[in-house]
Amino acid sequence: MLFLQFVKRNILLYFRDRASVFFSLLATLIVVALMIAFLGEGAIDSTLYTLGVGQVDERSHAMSLVIIWTISGIVVVNAVSVSMMLVGRMVTDVEGGRFSAFMVAPVRRFVYVIGYVTASVLVAFMMCLLTLLIGEGYVTFSVGVDLEWKMLGEIVCVLLAILFSSASFVFLCAVSVRTASAYAGLNTVVSSLIGFLAGIYVPFGALPKLLQQCIRFVPAFQGASAFRQILMEREIEWFGCAAEYKEGYADYMGLVIKYGGEEASLWAKVAYMISAGVFFIVIATMILQKKKEE
Length: 294
What we know:
Layout: H1 2-16, H2 18-51, H3 58-96, H4 98-104, H5 109-142, H6 152-174, H7 180-197, H8 209-215, H9 219-238, H10 243-252, E1 258-259, E2 262-263, H11 266-293
Antiparallel strand pairs: 1-2
Helix pairs in contact: 1-5, 2-3, 3-5, 3-6, 3-7, 3-9, 5-6, 5-11, 6-9, 6-11, 9-11
């Protein structure tokens, strides 16, 4: 009961700031619009050059691929940015002295860790799902390609895994700082780098080889790759070009992740993200325990 009350408290505090909620959604829509407006035509032409074989409606399907690729990346960015906002409540609690009261209460530290993370996952789930629905609605009405409902279960599983790993990582960052100003600076750095370090704004194949080797192990990249694998594979299969061109395109755009020549499956990516989230939570709990002893 205490755990549920703590989660409810964090969620209500987030939605109390309506301006923050509104601008977080507005920022997402602006980024999507800018990427489609300035990068869309070039990306569509590149897709047609790689996969096109003169079939009817090729351009609409190429546009669908570009939009889905963009939306998938934005969802992962949202997972991190919304988590930063929710978990930032803990830093505010520390500065206000409330967190010290939590720490001396006869409650396991793990309850507070999971409470902040759970609130972050629930709110970010709503925001990211709304982003997906907006993106899918745009694809359906402007391009005429709709989402198969059988994908919904896979999408929810991947989304929860992304949110769990993102919230856990953000919480680990939050317990390492002591002031709201330091956390705001950390938020700026993470928000600026996540899109590039996770291969979200730039195709995986366009990145330097060294960076490609590194970001394969970033949970956010695993999440973006899993989303794109689910949502883009059917569209890629629609094209009538040779299989090697489709495989090359999927590899270049980051739909597949290979380790030692072996391609990681969708559920391997999900398991990796969950394992990373558990690891971050364990480290964060250890740091909190050390702070209590101090």
